[in-house]
Amino acid sequence: MNDITEVRHLSPLVRNSILSQLTLLDKQCFSKKEIHSLDTITLLSKPNHQLLVSFRENDHRLLGYVMFSNRSHQALIVRLAVHPDFRRQGNARALMMAALLQLKRCHRVALQVAQDRTAAIALYESLDFVRIRELPDYYGEGKHAWFMVREG
Fold it and tell me: Which residues contact 116 (CB under 8 A, 6 or more apart)?
C-alpha cells in the first residue's frame, strides 16, 4: 500500500530514507536548469514550503513527491516528481490532489511547467489549471515553459 504524507510527520528513520531517495529522484526527473540550482531539500528549509511524499509502506520506497509554497491565499506548486518506475499509475494525480486539498483555502494556485512535458500539462489541465502565458527560455535557451493557474 502507498501512503502520502507530509515529510515532517515521518519518523526520523523513514524521513532520512525518503530524503536520500528524493535527491536521486530529482536527478532522474529534472535537468539542472529545471531545478534552478535549488534542490528540493534546500527548498524545504524555506518558510511556507511543504513537501508531500508518496512511498510504499512496506519498504519506504519513494514513488514521488509534490512541493508547494503557501502564502496567504495564494500558493505555488514548486515541484512535482514521480519515479519513472511508478509513472502512468495515478501517482502524480494522487499527489496533486493531496496538495490541492491542503491548499483548499487558497484563492489561486500557480505553477510553471516545461512545454515539452505534455503528460504533466494534461494532468494540470484535468485539475482545472489554465495556461496563462508562455515563459520563453524559462528553463534555458529554447526551453520554454507555461505559467498555469487554478482559481477558486
Answer: 143
**26 φ/ψ angles, rounded to the nearest 5 degrees:** -55, -45
Helix (H, G, I), strand (E, B) or coil at 43: helix
Per the rule left: phi > 0, alpha: psi between -120 and 50, beta: everything else, 62 is beta
> What's the pLDDT tens digit per position in 36-66?
656 677 777 777 888 999 988 888 888 999 9
Residue 68 to residue 43: CA distance in whole angstroms: 10
Q: 2-151: which CATH topology?
A: Aminopeptidase (3.40.630)
The domain segmentation of the chain, as residue ranges, is: 2-151
pLDDT tens digit sequence for 136-151: 998 888 999 999 999 9
